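go over this record:
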Amino acid sequence: MGIEEQLTTVLAKAVIEADKAESVKELETIRVSYLGKKGEITSVLKGVKDVAPEQRPVIGKKANEVRDELTTLLSHKKERLEKEALERQLEKETIDVTLPGKQVSKGQTHVLTQIMEEIEDLFLGMGYQIIEGNEVESDHYNFERVNLPQNHPARDMQDTFYITPDVLLRTHTSPIQARTLESHDFSKGPLKMISPGKVYRRDTDDATHSHQFHQIEGMVIAENITMADLKGTLELLAKKMFGEDREIRLRPSYFPFTEPSVEVDVSCFKCGGTGCNVCKGTGWIEILGAGMTHPNVLEMSGVDSTKYSGFAFGLGPDRIAMLKYGVDDIRNFYLNDQRFLKQFKRKG
């Protein structure tokens, strides 16, 4: 049998075996056995050295045709086997799209953010501006411009974190009021503002104190502002945060930046004023400090204290949240414990 006939026989044999192959792996074995360096086609071509020189080109052409045809055949067979394997896998892994999916839980704003936004909404409705400022502040604006000069004893209650002797982390949001006062044009109307944000003090962390907490301070400066305006504003705030049947009382106190100054109590929202563990049997709960803006604060900002007057107040959203929801440890707000935070779903 000549070499050309042997090549034809090899091709026919390979076609039969390829047709019977049932996997890509089996097909690869067939390819190597026929087209590999030690395959059958190579073995047949070893006899070329024994034929006449003029026949060698004819045999070479035949060998290339056999290789090309077999390669094409194996390639098509491989594509078909891979497609069938994929279809079997897809059929095996079919997903029932009619099954109910897993519910994706929705996030929510932090409880302290909810409290702050609730307070902001109230004051926006009363025509106040919301003004924010830097948390890193100068000693001049943080203390001196709010009537706390160097060596003033009240500074001890607001010890904070110093970056340099003159630069610190603010202890309250009062510097924003001082900066706003000196830039406000009273010919265009009164100044009504609140300044929310984080503040810092070197308080020892315990159940009711944290080195970082939130504060919202408010201020109104205009002509003929009185303590009655302050009381009406704070009464509205108390009703908004703790219920429409709440009452407030003002007790004399001392703050360097207000004169006169008051502590503000709200009637206990748990017992209604009869006395309980929340109000410690008094029927009242202290919620914030306030007072009439000190004339020195106005004058240092270039505001004529004989013409303009005003009031200021400061409250802690952290404390409001603790009282409103009966939380006994302020640190719970900062631990990111989802079991705790998920209790405070925003209404609406």
